[in-house]
Automatic annotation (TrEMBL):
Keywords: Aminotransferase, Pyridoxal phosphate, Transferase
Provenance organism: Hesseltinella vesiculosa
UniProt GO BP: gamma-aminobutyric acid catabolic process
Protein name: 4-aminobutyrate aminotransferase
Lineage summary: Eukaryota, Fungi, Fungi incertae sedis, Mucoromycota, Mucoromycotina
GO function term, MF aspect, one: pyridoxal phosphate binding
Catalytic activity field: 4-aminobutanoate + 2-oxoglutarate = succinate semialdehyde + L-glutamate
Cofactor(s) needed: pyridoxal 5'-phosphate
Class of this enzyme: transferase
Length: 491
């Protein structure tokens, strides 16, 4: 079995059809320790198969109560550090999957550990508030110093919830309530509406829709699952609403060499969107789109596409909802991925979760429901998670992590473009993906990478997605790239 080990100077020769690249693994003195994690491991160490015997035993135990067929291995988070995850067998893996893009600033980050000493954090942990009826005394301050500090321009409201699916579900509800209010002329509810909604019938339960895209992923609850179209296994056997989907543009990569073709397929997609809105027999209350379709295969579109998509929504009074659950909080090199679109106006709503360690959505104040209890649940978020989110924002700002993401992301994309075994290398910042020839080849590659000390993930039919943390640096990239090259040569 290969080992990814740094020992003095080592070179790896990467051969492509036209070029030979000498990638140097840095010496201990010039690249280590990491400025973000001085005590993190310096390389992967693999002692057993992954999953190993202790992981398999733990999985067998857990399988008595929960399905473990999706589990890669069982983690030892106490021993994990920085960009490295440790499993219960003592294997140390460089983690470029990061809990499905959910760890922003490294395992056991000291800034997050220090929260334990904060009396306000301790109080929030011991007394979880039902924020809709009894918000804690510093909740407004927390909102200002956390969510509103990084709110997308033009969005002055935030509704906090428990997960990304919940964020999208409540964004959909907001769109429906806004559309219904406009259709009734902002007058009061009629008795017929109030009575009929209790039987799930019109006019109180109107037949409206959310427009989404092919290959999209927006969650696994009922509304969010209806808008999802990335894998059939998510949706099979589950009743769904009759909501339309438009074809997301299937671009050719690299983008710089296929501009004419890509403009054409984007225009075709936009034409389909407008036709669906115009021809729909039911009002389209909102359109939801990911800046990069993640679960569906890391599918990109141009900033021009999104600007024109927003213009279509505005022209037809359809709310423009941007799902930043996976792309948000820095992974693309800007705090919000949609910042790179240069939109003339803000989206109507932006949903978030994952790297923020908190969930919810930002919205324009005009979308706040006129009546109380319409956007509401018991907890409405969690002050503990808001403390974590504030610490994450501070780490990103104080350590200039967005610049790190841009610089290292450019390096990784350049290096990957020379590997002839990879297809369609694409990315924005460290939000990077490439395709393998087949699903079987992709799945074998993922397994072999873990056996050689790099935890990595897939998406779509044959895509490998990289989701490293914002603290991922060039020395980490070199370990990943050299391991990747060695695994590809094995196959």
């Amino acid at each position: 079995m290969l080992r990814a080990v740094i020992s003095g100077q080592r070179h790896c020769l990467l051969k492509s059809s036209n070029v030979v690249i000498h990638r140097t693994l840095a010496t201990t003195s010039d690249k280590y320790p990491s400025p973000y994690f001085p005590d993190e491991p310096r390389q992967p160490q693999v002692h057993s198969a992954v999953p190993g015997p202790k992981s398999l035993s733990a999985m067998k135990h857990l399988d008595q109560y929960q399905d473990t067929r999706s589990v890669f291995f069982v983690a030892d988070f106490e021993k994990s550090k920085g960009n490295y995850i440790v499993d219960v067998d003592g294997n140390t893996l460089l983690d470029v999957f990061a809990q499905i893009a959910s760890i922003p600033v490294g395992y056991n980050n000291p800034a997050l550990h220090s929260l334990m000493k904060n009396p306000a954090f301790q109080t929030a942990l011991a007394n979880r508030a039902a924020l809709g009826v009894n918000p804690n005394k510093d909740w407004a301050h927390q909102i200002e110093e956390t969510f509103m500090k990084v709110a997308p321009k033009g969005l002055d409201q935030v509704f906090t919830v428990m997960c990304g699916s919940c964020a999208n579900e409540n964004a959909f509800k907001t769109a429906f309530m806004y559309k219904a209010a406009k259709l009734r002329g902002d007058s009061s509810f009629t008795m017929e509406e109030l009575n009929s909604c209790m039987n799930n019938q019109a006019p109180g339960s109107p037949d409206m829709a959310i427009l989404s895209f092919s290959q999209a992923f927006h969650g696994r609850l009922f509304g969010s699952l209806t808008a999802t179209a990335s894998k059939a296994i998510h949706k099979i056997d589950i009743p769904a609403f009759d909501w339309p989907k438009a074809a997301f543009p299937k671009l050719k990569y690299p983008l710089s060499k296929n501009e004419s073709y890509n403009r054409q397929v984007e225009q075709e997609s936009l034409a389909t969107v407008e036709a669906i809105i115009q021809q729909s027999k039911k009002p389209i209350a909102g359109l939801i789109v990911e800046p990069i379709q993640s679960e569906g295969g890391d599918n990109h579109a141009s900033p021009d596409f999104f600007r024109k998509l927003q213009a279509i929504c505005k022209a037809h009074d359809v709310l423009f909802i941007v799902d930043e659950v996976q792309t948000g909080v820095g992974g693309t090199g800007t705090f919000w991925a949609h910042e790179s679109w240069d939109l003339p106006d803000s989206p109507d709503m932006v949903t978030f979760s994952k790297k923020f360690q908190a969930a919810g959505f930002f919205l324009n104040g005009r979308l706040r429901p006129a009546q109380p209890y319409r956007l509401y649940n018991t907890w409405m978020g969690d002050p503990v998670r808001a403390f974590q989110a504030a610490a994450i924002i501070n780490e990103i700002e104080s350590k200039n992590l967005l610049s790190n993401v841009k610089n290292v992301g450019a390096y990784v994309q350049d290096q990957l473009s020379h590997l002839k075994e990879l297809e369609n290398v694409r990315g924005q910042g460290l939000f990077i993906a490439f395709d393998m020839p087949t699903t079987a080849a992709r799945d074998k590659f993922l397994v072999n990478m873990r056996q050689n000390g790099v935890n990595i993930g897939g998406c779509g039919d044959r895509t490998v997605r990289l989701r490293p943390m914002l603290t991922f640096q060039q020395q980490h990239a070199d370990i990943m790239l050299n391991t990747m090259d060695a695994v590809l040569q094995q196959n």
